Amino acid sequence: MNKIGQKKVVIWVLISIIVIYSIGQLFPLIWLVDFSFCTSNDLFGSFILKLPSPPQFINYVDAWTIGKYPKFLLNSVLINTLTVSVTVFLSIIMGYAFTRMEWKLRNTCFTIVLLGMMIPIHATLLPNFLLFGKLKLLDTLPGILIPYIAFSMPLGIFIMAAFLRTIPKALEESAIIDGCGIFRLIFQIITPLTKPAIVTVSVMTFINSWNEFIMALTYLNTDKFKTIPFSIMSFMGLYGGNYAAQFAIMTLAALPSLLVYALLNEQITKGVTVGGIKG
Amino acid sequence: MAKVLSNKLAISLLVVPGMLLFLFAVFVPIVMSCFYALTDFQGIGNLHFIGLENFKQILTNDTTFYRSLLNALLLALAFIFLQHPLSLTFAIILDKLSGKFEKIFRVIIFIPCVISVMVNAKMWVNIFDSQFGLLNKVLDLLGLGVLKTDWLGNPHTALPSILFVNCWMGFGWAVMIYYAGVKGISEEMYEAAKIDGASAFKLYTKILIPLLKPVISMAATLAVINALKTMEVPFLMTNGGPGDYTQFIANYLYTKAFSDSQYGYGNAVSVIFVAVCLLGTLISNKITNSGNYE
Asked: What is the rounded distance in angstroms from the CA atom of residue B50 to the CA atom of residue B35?
């Protein structure tokens, strides 16, 4: 066999390995979507996949209306928009103070915040449940935003600080000589430069908080502010035996983040590889 | 210059609100946990100080606690010896493909990671189901019907199933970390090795892997931390059952406090949990960094 032929074989072997692997990653999801269009009885048949005949759109109608999907979606959008924007804002101002400004407790504070990356969320669940209860924060918007932001901050500040260190100081020096104040300096001169880091922080915060559910389960006890994962939980309670409809609500719950991923996959891949340290 | 950047008022305005928020939601609860760990509080009613009784009970007389630790250890081993070697291999293959295929597969591999753990976990519960689950149907199709079982209900298969789902969900993250590492190695390195007559196998084992050592050690540390922190998958799939075969520490402390009303005891588990996580991070950092040259 000549050299070029050999190379081709190697490439095809590699491609087939990765195809098998990708099927392993995707097939469960394809199965889920497929049977979400079938009846529950179809699920008990011996087929692995089945062409739905006719497609049971009623499953999706049930999931949308009885599962109160739009309400949970709106809550998720609201909570995530606020979490991401506050986290980005705090990452910029605190990242700046930690890397560029001179003060006594700087290193101590920075270390404390970074230590937060190692503290598991789960260890704060029990005491925070009591604390928030006493402060009447349970089942309120601040009651869910505060822990979400607090646990997104360390990674956000870490990424932002690392990025700020790469920006040359000359720009700030000349701005200060021209009489620019600290807040104008941060928001008008530095912030536009940190755009790549802002994207990374937003992406990481979004992925983590969009999919979060154990804090929401603990701190929210009514549906008022509950997020998308809970559409599945509450629907399963109501539609215990109707598996196909449950598959429909699971598909719907997965859809928004898949759409965001389809639109922003370039930025997400970049964000993940830069901020690869998952909280 | 110095004046603007060391203005105390400005620094306080920038740092204090965020620090307060962080201390309130992350550090205050840890301190509270240490306090409640010393009591027999049940969630309501009076509490009594019982000293280190809870800790004594956990460390000397709590088999579930030790099983949780063991399970976390097994998960860490599964991450390090199954998930990571595979991920590294796929990262290398991805890098080799280049062009259209590289992009398509990179996108596909990460899909499970953007989907909520709730969807993933509940989907796998259905796949493992004994009556209509996908897994049993596939086994039937392959003529392996004898292997059919109630995967999450059978004490022998429940833990491996949970470990598998954790690995499956984390694949995308692991591949991406290694992929970034592989991408960071310059093309010239390969060229130089090829000119020196290195075979493809040697190229990867003798050159690429040593170059990736910092990435591998970071990923291994993360794997240990993630294994210790595991809660969502067992919570949603088995809640520790059958018995306590699939119990993990975070899920155990949650169950103790909220289902068994042993709030003080749960907090004591929680305090040990934080200590174990910090210790685990330190140790795995030490081990993986010991052979590093920076």
From this structure: 11
Lowest-confidence segment of A65-79, A168-182, B154-168 by average pLDDT: A168-182
Rounded CA-CA distance B284/B286 in Å is 5
A254 in contact with B, Cβ within 8 Å: yes
pLDDT at A7: 75
**CA distance to partner chain B, nearest, from residue A141 (Å):** 14
Copy the structure tokens of residue B66. 């030790």
Report ipTM for this prediction.
0.88
Query: Chain A contacts of B116, Cβ < 8 Å?
Result: 210-211, 213, 228-229, 253-254, 257
Helix H or strand E encompassing B170: helix B155-183
Q: Which residues of B touch A17 (CB under 8 A)?
A: 93
CA distances from A263 to B86, B94, B169 (A): 28, 21, 21
Report chain B's mean pLDDT, rounded to a whole number: 88
**Closest among B180, B179, B158 to B241, alpha carbons compared:** B158
Structural domains of chain A sorted by starting position, each given as residue range(s) with its CATH number in brackets: 3-57 (no CATH), 59-274 (1.10.3720.10)
Count of alpha carbons within 13 Å of B14, Cβ hemisphere only?
29
CB contact under 8 A, B132 and A43: yes
Q: Per residue in A16-27, pLDDT tens?
A: 888 888 898 899
- The count of other CB atoms within 10 Å of the CB of residue A88 is 20
Q: For A160-186, write each residue's pLDDT tens digit.
A: 998 999 888 888 888 888 888 889 999
Contact A155, A204 (CB under 8 A): yes
> Tokens standing for A89?
């804002």
Torsion of CA B109, A117, A137, A139, to 10 degrees: 10
**Residue B47 and residue B65 in contact, taking contact as beta carbons nearer than 8 Å:** no
The shortest C-alpha distance from A143 to chain B (Å) reads 10
Predicted pLDDT of residue B292 = 47
CB A153 within 8 A of CB A98: no
- pLDDT above 80: residue B194: no
Q: Report the Cα–Cα distance between both ends of chain B, in Å, rounded.
A: 35
pTM of the full predicted structure? 0.90
Interchain CB distance below 8 Å, B14 and A97: yes
Q: Report the distance separating Cα A76 and Cα A74, nearest Å.
A: 5
Task: Give the pair of three-digit tokens for residue B47.
Answer: 């509490």
| Domain B48-289 belongs in CATH node 3.40.50.2300 | no
State the smallest CA–CA distance between residue A181 and chain B in angstroms.
7
Contact A181 B90 (CB under 8 A): no
- What are the helix (H) ranges across B79-205? 84-97, 100-114, 117-127, 134-141, 155-183, 187-195, 200-202
Please give the biggest Cα pair distance in chain A: 77
- Enter the DSSP assignment of B242: S
Q: Give the torsion through C-alpha atoms of A148, B116, A70, A204, to 10 deg.
A: 50
Q: Which residue has the higher pLDDT, A92 or B144?
A: A92
Nearest to B111 by CA among A215, A204, A60, A24: A24
What gap in Å lies between CA A58 and CA A39, rounded to an integer? 10
- φ, ψ at A212 (rounded to 5°): -65, 140
**Type of residue numbered A181:** G
Place of tokens 């840890």: B30
